[in-house]
Amino acid sequence: MGTFLTVVILIICFLLGVVILVQNPKGGGLAAGFTGGSQMGGVQRTTDFLEKSTWYLVVALFVACIFAGVYNGNKTADVGIEDTLIPDAVTLPEAPAQEAPAEAPEPAAETAE
After folding, report:
1. What DSSP element (H or E) covers 6?
2. pTM (2 decimals)?
3. Inter-residue contact 20 to 54 (CB < 8 Å)
4. Domain residue ranges in the chain
5. For helices 2-22 and 43-71, angle between their N-to-C axes, nearest 10 degrees
6. pLDDT in tens, 19-48
7. Burial of 63 (0-12, 13-18, 19+ CB in 10 A)
8. Distance between terminal CA atoms of the chain?
9. What proportions of the chain, in percent to the nearest 5, are helix, strand and coil?
10. H-type alpha helices, 1-113
């Protein structure tokens, strides 16, 4: 399900980018090709379609991201700021007990002859 939501989000992002790039901020863009006012799907209808599709894609992206966050979110409930940033006690693993090295015998004192 997480992979499916990710693919849906990527498709929505691609479509949103295409729809935004097709628009022209001054009213041209794809709509500039339709110069006749009496044509079916003229300039005004194309601009309205692009604007509405932009809003629908933005809402769909928002909803898909919310669902992905809920589905892929934290699965444990016991994680809080106290647990992650300020641990109660830090325990270090104990080193295995080592035997004290046997002392080497002292060299025999040489006798002065």
Report:
1. helix 2-22
2. 0.52
3. yes
4. 2-34+42-74
5. 160
6. 988 887 665 555 555 555 444 545 567 778
7. exposed
8. 94
9. 55, 0, 45
10. 2-22, 43-71, 81-85
